[in-house]
Specification:
Number of strands: 10
Distance between the termini: 63 Å
Number of helices: 19
Number of domains: 2
Strand content: 5-15%
Structural class: alpha/beta
Largest sheet: 8 strands, parallel, barrel
CATH class of the largest domain: Alpha Beta
CATH topology of the largest domain: TIM Barrel
Order of helices and strands: HHHEEEHEHEHHEHHHHEHEHEHEHHHHH
CATH architecture of the largest domain: Alpha-Beta Barrel
Length: about 425
């Protein structure tokens, strides 16, 4: 059976080995999965060169997935620490990892990272193109930019973020609707500078067919980036953001025609009361393509706690239709996260994703909670630890109390659970 991409296989009714992996993890029928991939409401990012991958699905009817960002920079370039972050992400049941490296030797790291990662792996190739170019951003050639994309595809990357919707028209909207925080997307700002210095259209928009050829050759899922995502509550859901989203919807249909899988990236910083509307706009304008959101962060004033502001927004976004949450760590806006920060970010994001799955009515989601509640009723501490999202932390808190027996140090023998159980069940 010969097919170029997971999408093409689904359209031909072929269940690939990667799809079978998804079926093992999800409570969805084979037919529903094939139909979702065919329509574009589900993606299975799986580069042909990613040999260690255990594929996951992202989209309608599937559990809400979470992504972890890692990467080396000119100031912090310790491969071993970043590889440890990947190992911790896998242990903590993250679904994907993105390498956001901005280091001239990032290819060596990327190849090692992809090889060691059994979960989906994503990158932003324009970072590589920029950091490895000896000269001003505006002097980069179109061939140089696309060369970076192809190199990442060859290295086994499952999905790439490309800010193809940041067109000259979207930039004009930005200039007419001046923002408080301008452009906070690193990739978006690079392309904005390139376009302004050259007086030309975004090369990834102008030569989108060339991009699709690379994605189709290696079966790389296209994550259409939000170069104009809001970086503050003041800029949320404004004209530049929506203008870019309109273009992303048009590009989505073009990618589907080429049998290339697509996700759409979204905000960003969004007030609580605007999150659901943002999810609905994406699903409408981008034809139901899976939505991948950064947070969203629901307040701008909590540096050091942005894993919490992100989890609040992520739970609401997921419940309203987001399919994929990009974690945020306590170090967001402050520094490169360390391994401990990564752990905090993953757990917070997993809590948000699970809360969203319960709200969506995803089959089997709330049963996990019911099992935990039953263990609490029985004061079965070992079972509670086993069922916890973070068993290690739960056990450590319990053991730190120094107490033995059924109850905890909060209520002791006045434990309502124990008392009511004994009365109602006549123990």
């Amino acid at each position: 059976m010969n097919f170029a991409t997971q999408k093409e296989a689904a359209r031909r009714g072929i269940v690939t080995p990667q799809m079978r992996m998804v079926l093992q993890d999800e409570k969805i029928s084979e037919q529903a999965l094939l139909e979702g991939i065919s329509r574009g409401t589900i993606v299975v990012p799986a580069n042909k060169n990613h040999a260690s991958l255990r594929a996951k699905g992202v989209g309608a009817g599937l559990s809400t997935k979470i992504n972890v960002n890692i990467g080396v920079s000119p100031d912090c370039c310790n491969y071993d620490i970043e590889l440890e972050k990947i190992r911790r992400a896998i242990d903590l049941k993250a679904d994907a990892v993105m390498d956001l490296s901005i280091n001239p030797k990032s290819r060596e790291f990327r190849r090692r990272a992809v090889e060691s990662s059994s979960i989906m792996f994503g990158t932003v190739p324009v970072y590589d193109a920029t950091i490895r170019f000896d000269g001003p951003v505006g002097d980069m050639s179109v061939d140089h930019l696309f060369g970076a994309v192809k190199e990442h595809a060859q290295d086994g990357v499952d999905f790439v973020t490309i800010h193809a919707g940041l067109t000259s028209i979207a930039v004009e909207r930005l200039k007419r609707n001046m923002r408080l925080t301008h452009v906070v997307s690193r990739g978006g700002s690079i392309l904005l500078e390139w376009m302004e210095k050259n007086g030309k259209e975004n090369p990834f928009y102008e030569h989108f067919d060339r991009l699709l050829e690379i994605c189709r050759e290696f079966d790389v899922t296209l994550s259409l980036g939000d170069g104009l995502r809001p970086g503050s509550l003041r800029d949320a859901t404004d004209a530049p953001q929506i203008q870019e989203l309109i273009f992303l919807g048009e590009l989505t249909k073009k990618a589907w025609e080429a049998n290339v899988q697509v996700m759409i990236e979204g905000p960003g910083h969004v007030p609580l009361n605007e999150i659901a509307a943002n999810m609905q706009l994406e699903k409408k304008l981008c034809h139901g393509a899976p939505f991948y959101v950064l947070g969203p962060l629901v307040t701008d004033v909590a540096p050091g706690y942005d894993h919490i502001t992100s989890a609040i927004g992520g739970a609401i976004a997921g419940a309203a239709g987001a399919d994929f949450l990009c974690y945020v760590t306590p170090a967001e806006h402050l520094r490169l996260p360390d391994v401990a920060d990564v752990r905090e970010g993953i757990v917070a994001s997993r809590i948000a994703a699970h809360a969203a799955d319960i709200a969506k009515g995803l089959p089997g989601a709330i049963e996990w909670d019911h099992r935990m509640s039953d263990a609490r009723k029985r004061l079965d501490w070992e079972e509670m630890f086993r069922l916890a999202i973070d068993p290690e932390k739960a056990r450590a808190y319990r053991e730190s109390s120094g107490i033995e027996g059924d109850v905890c140090t909060m209520c002791g023998e006045f434990c309502a659970v124990k008392r009511s159980r004994d009365v109602l069940e006549k123990r």
